[in-house]
């Protein structure tokens, strides 16, 4: 019986069971943190073209990362809800098999 927090394939708590690539997480993190930085560096150039848009982007740029992180956490918990149901079913089947063996 596996007593550590891995699913036997090396992923902690079964995070990557369903062929879920960690590359998606990395790309989301790069986008989440990189987009506000790119916007802030581009503000002087945007201000030359349209100052109102530059002001708007300057106001929302600091909030892009927290908003995207909130969405990522929401999607993570939404996905874990489905996985918990299947994990509970698997645990029941395993416990039934173990009780039959004794």
Automatic annotation (TrEMBL):
UniProt name for this protein: DUF2933 domain-containing protein
Keywords for this protein: Membrane, Transmembrane, Transmembrane helix
TM segment ranges: 26-47, 53-77
Keyword Membrane: yes
Organism classification: Bacteria, Bacillati, Bacillota, Clostridia, Lachnospirales
Keyword Membrane recorded: yes
Species whose genome carries this gene: Petrocella atlantisensis
């Amino acid at each position: 019986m596996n007593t550590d927090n891995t699913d036997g394939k090396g992923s902690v708590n079964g995070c990557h069971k369903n062929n879920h690539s960690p590359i998606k997480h990395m790309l989301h993190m790069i986008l989440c943190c990189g987009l506000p930085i790119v916007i802030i560096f581009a503000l002087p150039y945007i201000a030359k073209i349209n100052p109102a848009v530059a002001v708007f982007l300057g106001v929302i740029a600091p909030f892009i990362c927290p908003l995207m992180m909130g969405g990522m956490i929401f999607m993570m918990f939404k996905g874990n809800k489905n996985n918990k149901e299947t994990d509970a079913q698997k645990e029941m089947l395993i416990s039934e098999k173990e009780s039959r063996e004794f």
